[in-house]
Amino acid sequence: MQNRLLTVMFVDVQGFTRRTAGQTTDETATFIKEINSFVLQNLEKWSGHLVKTMGDGFMATFESTTNAIQCGLEMQRKLEGRNANVLNPDNFVRFRIGINTGEVSIDENGDMFGDTVNIAARIEGFTEPNEVYISESTFLAMNRNDVGAVDLGPQMFKNATREIRVYKVMRDGTLQGSAQTPKQKKTEVQPSSNKDFKEKVLRIFRKSWKWVLAVILLGAILVGRNIHQNHQIRKGLEQAKKLWNDAKNLKSNGKFNEAQEKFREAKETCEKNLEKAINRSFPFSAQQWLMFGRLFLECQDREKAVGAFDKGFAMVEKNPEQKKAYQEKLEEIKTQMFEDAKISLSRGKPKEALALMELASGASDRYSLTQSNKELIFLGRLYLRTGAINKADELFGKAETKVGKNPGALIKLREKVERLKREEGNFSNGNEPANSPNDEDENE
Predict the structure, then answer these.
(1) pLDDT, tens only, 240-299
(2) Are residues 172 and 71 in the same domain?
(3) What does the alpha-carbon distance between residue 5 and residue 79 come to, in Å, rounded to a whole number?
(4) CA 352 – CA 361 distance, rounded (Å)
(5) CATH code at 75?
(6) Beta strands in 318-427 (DSSP E)
(7) Model-level pTM?
């Protein structure tokens, strides 16, 4: 998994369904082939990279923000020329093009996701046919000597955490457009001669060059500041991860108090940078959310841990391969929770052990993870220890169901349950259990 600063373009063929509804399969295939070829040729010319096609749409990325906009404008101009030679308006081809710039998460398969991608898609859906709309981050990063834009104001898109300012790209590509708002008009120059034209242009430039330079410099400063702040966030989160690894090493060496202090330090560092990142719509990967969840779990902030795991799971839920890999990681975490719960019980902290096992059991249901009989029986034992007899019996019943019709295994399981009930009954009467929570029979 890697993060890169890219400009993302979404292209939608407007009216695709209506147009193809009256076509034969061959006619539709020919039309799609022509559109694909048209888009690919223009992407290649402007150094764009096709990420994927979506039937009547395309997703592409560009290293250069200005190239992305010029590519979009050129496609619209070419389609305008094509449509001028088509008699039937039903056969016109119209594109909606939305563009956004920011950090994109890229997985090992080359698929891209994150807020930058989502916002680009939302902008495309907001765009009028035959137009190119861009976000504020794209507007600030583009070369406004080559491209102009009209400010359409802030827009609130579905599932967005903040308003996104949107701009409509000017077809003529003039710089004046960059200062224009929907209610403003461009200054028109109609010279009577070449000499007059030159003098008027110079006069306009002398009046406005400082403003133009200020706008360009402000854009560069804001983009640079954005990159710097994202870098600082990433550094802070890397520091949190280092502290977390140090804490894990201390814990594995039996230095529990020192480990807990280090975990708290890691959590504070993480929370501070996480808050900044969320406010800036910083794109996290599923693996990063997994790491945050583990960190919060170690610090016994279970609500935040589940929240982080949920965010990561939501990112991979629709991709079977990524979902499976994420579930495998969650299985590892759940297994570690089981081991930690046994340690807590051996240290005389049954309530702490119970809280861990309840969370592990909840994770099994929440993320469709496996739940072994060892886990069910141990959780049942903790319920016995804390006096929740009915809950314990319910779990022992689940364990019997998992054993199924194997008579030998069922007898062995019931013997184990009866033994646990006797031991925990003795414990509640002030006597130590005959066996520790780590005995071999418990782990079968």
Answers:
(1) 778 878 887 887 788 888 888 888 887 788 777 666 655 555 566 777 778 778 777 777
(2) yes
(3) 30
(4) 14
(5) 3.30.70.1230
(6) none
(7) 0.42
